[in-house]
Automatic annotation (TrEMBL):
GO terms for molecular function: transmembrane transporter activity. GO terms for cellular component: plasma membrane. It is found in: Cell membrane. This is MFS transporter. It comes from Oceanisphaera psychrotolerans. The lineage of its organism: Bacteria, Pseudomonadati, Pseudomonadota, Gammaproteobacteria, Aeromonadales. It is a multi-pass membrane protein. Signal peptide: none annotated.
Length: 398
């Protein structure tokens, strides 16, 4: 991509982050809406939860498919296609007359999620100076984290006081705004033609598999805490219901701070930053168990667990370095891994609770998952120290 001014780069990053903000609303704002879905469609909570599962399934299915289908079209055109899908499918959800129609619209809404973030991250990396790639990618994910602070509470308020349909309509409106703003994005042709063989070739790399495993296991700890923190507050901390919103906001602030801070540190020391963050997250998860009787201390711990989300940009950058000939597939892999972690964390935590564990003790489970990610990270770190894996460290060691 041709050089552009700092102001132009910031404009590009703003538009890309806006798309991330919309996807953050689409994914996270629906969780507080489950009781409203149950009321609207006379469904049980378990049946309403299909709307959440359907979205995650859409992400996993859509990410690799659409990244490959759009790999050889201009990135601006691909991003506009994904945002148009967000506009249409969320609009259909707002018009749903049955739970089945809503679940289908949620599945369709999830299809462009991974492809958007993957393509946006590649565009951000292309306009970034070599030593600021992680920071630029983190700014794309910043939209998602800001959605957890501002967007989700606002949309929840709209849903509770007006209708959940207005929430999906708002997402469609913002998608239209993003679509129009994307005409300001650069529209240069791709530098190289992408082939299916090159994209699938990324799976031949042991380094790629190691990073994927580290992400799935380690990030599982984040979602183990996030999923059960509400029940912990209500049943163990015994705080009022509004305290749950406070904890969610603290998590969102933490994820935003993590994106900024880890993005800057990760520019120079991506691997060390990853290992240290996983280790600290394991310690904070253990601390979560012992301080969860205090709402103040629990919020402090939840803030630091939220900071761990900042690793997403670093992992994206590491995978892009590991597989330079498979950028489209890498973008899909990150989102699939993220959503797999989103499934594994709550599932393992649920097994522990079903076996008789206390709700706040899910911090132990999260600590084990973070520690597992750290253990998987160790061989990667050792390869760097032994200088046996130049694919990743040539940039860092210079």
């Amino acid at each position: 991509m041709s050089p552009c001014s700092l102001q132009s780069k910031n404009s590009i990053l703003f538009v890309l982050a806006l798309g991330g903000f919309i996807l953050g609303l689409t994914e996270f704002a629906m969780m507080p809406m489950l009781p409203l879905f149950s009321e609207a469609f006379s469904a049980t909570p378990a049946q309403s939860s299909y709307a959440i599962s359907a979205y995650a399934l859409g992400v996993v299915v859509g990410a690799p498919v659409f990244m490959l289908l759009t790999a050889n079209i201009r990135k601006r055109q691909a991003l506009m296609l994904f945002v148009a899908m967000m506009l249409v499918f969320n609009g259909l959800g707002a018009l749903a007359q049955t739970l089945e129609q809503l679940v289908l619209s949620r599945f369709l809404s999830g299809l462009p999620h991974g492809s958007y973030f993957g393509t946006a991250a590649i565009m951000a990396a292309e306009i970034a100076p070599r030593n600021k790639r992680v920071s630029y990618i983190s700014k794309v994910f910043m939209g998602l984290t800001i959605a957890t602070i501002i967007g989700v509470p606002l949309v929840t308020l709209i849903g509770q006081n007006l209708s959940w349909r207005y929430c999906l309509a708002l997402v469609s409106f913002l998608s239209l705004l993003a679509f129009l703003l994307m005409f300001r994005l650069p529209n240069e042709p791709n530098k190289t033609r992408i082939t299916l063989a090159n994209e699938l070739g990324v799976f031949k790399s042991g380094s790629v598999w190691s990073i994927i495993a580290m992400m799935i296991v380690g990030f599982g700890g984040i979602f183990c805490i996030y999923t059960y923190v509400a029940d912990t507050i209500l049943k163990h901390t015994q705080a009022p219901a509004y305290a749950v919103s406070i904890a969610m906001v603290m998590f969102g602030i933490g994820s935003t701070v993590g994106n900024v801070v880890l993005g800057k540190i990760g520019n120079r020391h991506p691997v060390r930053t990853t290992g240290v963050t996983l280790a600290l997250a394991a310690l904070f998860s253990l601390l979560y168990v012992f301080v969860s009787s205090s709402m103040v201390l629990l919020c402090v711990v939840v803030f630091f667990i939220g900071c761990t989300i900042g690793l997403a940009a670093i992992v994206q950058s590491l995978l892009m370095e590991a597989a330079p000939n498979g950028q489209a597939m890498i973008g899909a892999i990150v989102q699939c891994s993220f959503n797999t972690a989103n499934a594994i964390g709550p599932w393992v935590g649920g097994i522990y609770i079903a076996a008789g564990g206390k709700i706040h003790e899910t911090g132990y489970v999260a600590a084990i998952l973070f520690a597992g990610g750290f253990v998987i990270w160790l061989p990667v770190q050792n390869c760097w120290l032994a200088n046996r894996s130049p694919w990743l460290w040539s940039r860092v060691s210079q």
